Amino acid sequence: MKQAFKMVVASSAMVMVFTLVGPVQAQAAASQCPASTFNGSLCRWSGANYTGNFYAFGTDGNWNGSCRPIANNPVSILNRSLFGFAFYSGANCTGTSRVVHNGARDAGLGFFAKSYRDLGVLG
After folding, report:
1. For the domain that residue 82 is a member of, what is the CATH number?
2. Element holding 65 (H helix, E strand)
3. How many domains does the chain divide into?
4. Residue 7 domain-assigned?
5. Where are the alpha helices (DSSP H) in the chain?
6. pTM for the full model?
7. Backbone phi and psi for residue 30, each to the nearest 5 degrees, phi listed first
8. 67 - beta bridge partners?
9. Cα separation of 16 and 62, whole Å?
10. Is residue 19 part of a domain?
11. How far is it, in rounded angstroms, from Cα 63 to Cα 20?
């Protein structure tokens, strides 16, 4: 009995950890990315107007302008980093692009971003 209880607690803990790190579903809003929690991060949503799945990652700006693929193809961006980023509709930084300056937001890029480039500090 004691062993079975430990297994239930362990599997509940694993489910809890997965839930905490997984994407946040619908009803996303820019308020999901407060500066107090996500300072220095690039917050992004899969839908326009900060809806859909929410993802965030820290930025260090040491990419020297190199092009990188972006997961989850965001449409809305809130840039809490010190760096500007250009988002592209195509792979390898091709196609339509939009720049989101440091500290700025864009509720609808007009496309699903497939790649992006660090533009350094834009002021």
Report:
1. 2.60.20.10
2. none
3. 1
4. no
5. 2-21, 35-38
6. 0.72
7. -60, -20
8. 117
9. 34
10. no
11. 29
Of 110, 117, 115, 114, the closest CA to residue 47 belongs to 110
Measured CA to CA, the distance from residue 110 to residue 38 in angstroms comes to: 24
> Is 99:54 a contact under the CB 8 Å cutoff?
no
Going from the C-alpha of 85 to that of each of 10, 15, 49, the distances in angstroms are: 41, 34, 19
Domain that holds residue 65: 24-120
Q: Are 28 and 53 in contact (CB under 8 A)?
A: yes
Whether residue 59 is contained in a domain is answered as: yes
Q: pLDDT category, 63, cuts 50, 70, 90?
A: low
Q: Tell whether 1 is covered by a domain.
A: no
Whether 5 has a pLDDT exceeding 60, the answer reads no
